[in-house]
Amino acid sequence: MTAPTAPTVVPVALADRSYEILIGRDLLAGAGAELARRFPGARYAVITDETVAEHHLDTLIGSLTEADLGFTSIVVSPGEGSKSFETLEDIVDGVLSARLERGDLLIALGGGVIGDLVGFTAGIVRRGMRFVQMPTSLLAQVDSSVGGKTGINTRHGKNLVGLFHQPSLVLADTATLDTLDPRHLRAGYAEVVKYGLIDDAAFFHWLEANHAEIFAGGPARIGAIAASCRAKAAVVRVDEKEAGVRALLNLGHTFGHAFETACDYDPERLVHGEGVAIGMVLAHEFSARLNLASPDDAARVAAHLAAVGLPTEISDIPGGVGTVDDLMRSIFQDKKVKRGRLTFILTHGIGEAFVADDVTPDQVRAFLEDKLAA
Amino acid sequence: MTAPTAPTVVPVALADRSYEILIGRDLLAGAGAELARRFPGARYAVITDETVAEHHLDTLIGSLTEADLGFTSIVVSPGEGSKSFETLEDIVDGVLSARLERGDLLIALGGGVIGDLVGFTAGIVRRGMRFVQMPTSLLAQVDSSVGGKTGINTRHGKNLVGLFHQPSLVLADTATLDTLDPRHLRAGYAEVVKYGLIDDAAFFHWLEANHAEIFAGGPARIGAIAASCRAKAAVVRVDEKEAGVRALLNLGHTFGHAFETACDYDPERLVHGEGVAIGMVLAHEFSARLNLASPDDAARVAAHLAAVGLPTEISDIPGGVGTVDDLMRSIFQDKKVKRGRLTFILTHGIGEAFVADDVTPDQVRAFLEDKLAA
């Protein structure tokens, strides 16, 4: 544990949609003063889930009250099931009932589900309100709270409904991770590793050396989160709406989403970061099979992920993932499909990922058949 | 009736979101060829309502088939009631079931309800798809299909959920207005008159002289629609997201929306354009009362609207509009309220409207009390 210091600031430069990410311990307690300074006269709706509310809502409410800010609170059920039209409609109704106006702000206090839901709500109420991300999971702090992707799930797949809507501020209190169960901390860590694998081998090596301190909550935790946010911000800056290079952030995600679908998004069986961990190993193995990368890199990635306790094999998923046909259907319904060809993130080695748009379904099928048979 | 000619083209200049409005008779029959030329390789979902489907869906489908385009059709119930989360979710499900990808397009074939719903759907499916407006009502052709406002209603009011999402093309077939019932044609005409009242007195005088030909379907109809679209495009170009001058397009709408709310959006009692007609007269009367304009202008506006058969008085609304308190509540929940003050569109006379942001609730209340007592 470290003494409170000034937060680390990571700017996200997006012209008139630019904003800052503040990262530090115990930021929630000072959130009210920060908001009052940045958004004079605004009112707020804090949206969170029951689990997060239990740990952090009082702290945030106390800080808003102390700063004399007007607000309402909306608490929804925890879990991926809340990324639905039904919960969206409930939140919209709550925000409108509180008579928030277009200049007011929503606050997303929670993990990725809350961030996605609240960002989407903010994007569509009164044709666009501002919102603040206050991510309380590692996954949300290093990934989903940055970049403006918002949305809900449908029976056809994950995140198929949503929009790009940038927050006006991200406030990542790293102390909230102390209340996170270890499995979810590990799952978020998979996305941290991803930034090293994409284009920063030195960061991956640093993670291999420092992961214990990151998990324990030492200064390396803030460093790892800030480095991840900087990496994501750099990609989002040049490709806000995923027309090209932003797709790199999907390293491991095409396979990962297919596994999540196969598990019906049941967090008992698989959470997002675990799917991504297995997916990243597979992306390296698939690249090796296509003679693009050395199999040694795939092994090194798997070894590091296993060292922190993450799954690395399809067989690590309890209950299995169905047939190759099931997985292929998921992959082809995924939104990264373009005109029947697959956009896949492949790699030439650790830190050398690239967007491939010429992967054929046959190549994917043959690879998955071998993996499932193994 | 005129012989078919090349469509009139009105450009809407919005940087990378620019598009064209094509206006002419019998354009639906050639829509397939037009789309094939503009969007090579794309597939389509045609979304329409039962009433419009009966008159125009076969024509459009025939034209898509002739051009060898892939498409699916989704038909919803007619009427304002379809601007709901429920119908939105049905359309989203239909679009995803048809496996449309991000590069494909939705087609909104219908009036304002269909245009708002489909534009919103396009804005949120896969975080943004393209769409084409094919407006079949005069209201939609001169107003709602241009400018990118999309949305649905909630129990808190009209259009409180939605977003700005520009179409990729607007194709206005003026022959579709021949199947419109006269009352809806008149209602759309109110929005045409609005463009004259905002900043073009000469256009208003031309309308006084040519309204009969516009209603009969002569060449003046295309002229009036093109002039309206040009006027709206000019405003949208300088203020796409209604930060300022675009609010001028709300002339008559703050009162109008309150009346629509009072009538529970029941089209038997009041349709949007009728509310706007009465609202425009009131905006002129209210301006005269504030010594901003001559009462003669209010009388001249009322006379022209009455000449085409539009209502011009609150007492023209069957069943009444409730109490002043009811109306005030509607007006204050309206999204044009800023920090408790009313943004109102007032006028110095015909063709001289302006955005006033200093109207007090007391002024509005006193005016409405006098009108309801009259």
Give the topology.
2 copies of one chain form a homodimer.
Chain A: E1 8-12, E2 19-24, H1 31-38, E3 44-49, H2 50-66, E4 71-76, H3 85-97, E5 105-110, H4 112-124, E6 130-135, H5 138-144, E7 149-154, E8 157-164, E9 169-173, H6 182-199, H7 201-216, H8 219-238, H9 253-262, H10 272-289, H11 295-307, H12 324-333, E10 337-338, E11 341-347, E12 353-359, H13 361-373
Parallel strand pairs in A: 2-9, 3-4, 3-5, 5-6, 6-9
Antiparallel strand pairs in A: 1-2, 7-8, 10-11, 11-12
Quick overview:
The structure is a homodimer. Chain A is of the alpha/beta class and about 375 residues long.
Folded structure, characterized:
2 copies of one chain form a homodimer. Chain A is α/β, with parallel strands linked by helices. Helices cover about 45% and strands about 20% of the residues of chain A. In chain A, the strands form 3 sheets. The first copy, chain A, has a 7-stranded mixed sheet with strand order 1-2-9-6-5-3-4, sandwiched between helices. A 3-stranded antiparallel sheet of chain A has the order 10-11-12. In chain A, strand 11 and strand 12 form a beta hairpin. In chain A, helix 1 packs across helix 2 and helix 6 runs antiparallel to helix 7. At the A-B interface, helix 3, helix 4, strand 7, strand 8 and strand 10 of A face helix 3, helix 4, strand 7, strand 8 and strand 10 of B.
